[in-house]
Amino acid sequence: MRSCAVPAPRNKAFMLALLLLAAAPAFAADSLTTDRKGGLDNPVLSRYQGSVLYMFGESKLGTASVVTEQKGKAALLPVEGKVSNRLYLAPAGSSPLEVYRNYRHALEGAGYETVYACETAACEKANVQALIEQLPRKAVWAAAENAVQGTFNSANQPQFHYYSARRNGPAGPTWVSIGIVGGFAGAGVMSRVRQFVQIIEPATAELGKVTVDAKAITAGLKRDGKMALYGVNFDTNKAVLREDSAAQLGEMASALKAAPELKVFIVGHTDNQGEFSSNTSLSQKRAEAVTSALAGKYGIAANRLVARGVANLAPVASNEEEAGRAKNRRVEMVVR
């Protein structure tokens, strides 16, 4: 009886790629030649010439990780900011090494400091692909797609290269993290050199979106003798109350009406940006805008309110970074 030969197993990475491709939605032919609708390059960094933007995504304020070296080993460093995610497909026939070196050359030429860099052999030795395997899965994308989220599927994709860099600026550092893998012939999206590019720019939460209610104001005044209110909002360098301050002003008025004997200072605070004299004037005018609104629109007796502007004399956080400066720009109610 004639025996049947058992086929030799294929390359493990190739098989994993095919499994991933089978699980992914069928791709349109033009998805390999035309940018994803609605997507653009991040202005910080252009794509490798001739590449197609296959997928994109943004997070106004989020967290990401970049590879750095800690105690002689590759490790993930968590960073926070505006996170921009891009997956590019290089032109057919491109070399992963050439793509990698172009990105590195461009970033170093733009004044970025290399944080971590490795080409295939060094990356494998340091196990870097396994380290970043989950990053595309954790990233925000315009659409969920297995071929994108599994860019580094099983940490066994071929010709892997990695580069991370940082450049400091007035608002904080900008980070760039790039992972590049080669392709498999005839595997659609995975036949091309794929470039996972993540850019993390300085950003902080926009405060003033949450209103403190009257009960919390009363409790804070009894407990601490003061209450910081971030729902009282002004445009930059202006002392005109924005319309979205109405809810917070209403709660302040309710707290004052519930305690008719209470008298308070309304204190305006700024960060340390600009001249102190200008900040003093601005904080005073903002405090006066609040007392005028409480008296004129909400019926609080004017003799219960005293406006004071103290500029940046009483910070509650460091002014070195925008997150701290945002906390320092506030209005407080202080018991007289």
What descriptive keywords fit this protein?
alpha+beta; 336 residues; 26% strand; 4-stranded mixed beta sheet; 60s Ribosomal Protein L30, Chain: A; single chain
Layout of SSEs?
Layout (H helix, E strand, L loop, with lengths): L11 H12 L28 E19 L2 E17 L6 H14 L3 E6 L1 H7 L1 H5 L2 H4 L7 H4 L11 E7 L6 E8 L12 E8 L12 H11 L1 E4 L16 H13 L5 E6 L6 H21 L8 E5 L12 H7 L1 E6 L1
Parallel strand pairs: 8-9
Antiparallel strand pairs: 1-2, 2-6, 3-4, 4-5, 5-6, 7-10, 8-10
Helix pairs in contact: 7-8
Summarize the structure.
29% of the residues lie in helices and 26% in strands. With 336 residues, the chain is α+β, with helices and mostly antiparallel strands. The longest helix has 21 residues, at 276-296.
Number of DSSP helical runs: 10
Round the Cα radius of gyration to an integer and report it: 28 Å
Please indicate the count of domains: 2
Strand content: 25-35%
Strand order of the largest sheet: 1-2-6-5-4-3
The succession of helices and strands, N to C, reads HEEHEHHHHEEEHEHEHEHE
Mean pLDDT: 89
Overall 3D geometry?
elongated
Tell me the total number of β-strands. 10
Structural class: alpha+beta
- Which stretches are poorly predicted, pLDDT < 50 over at least 5 residues? 1-10, 12-27
Terminus-to-terminus distance: 103 Å
For the biggest sheet, the summary is:
6 strands, antiparallel
**Helix-residue proportion:** 25-40%
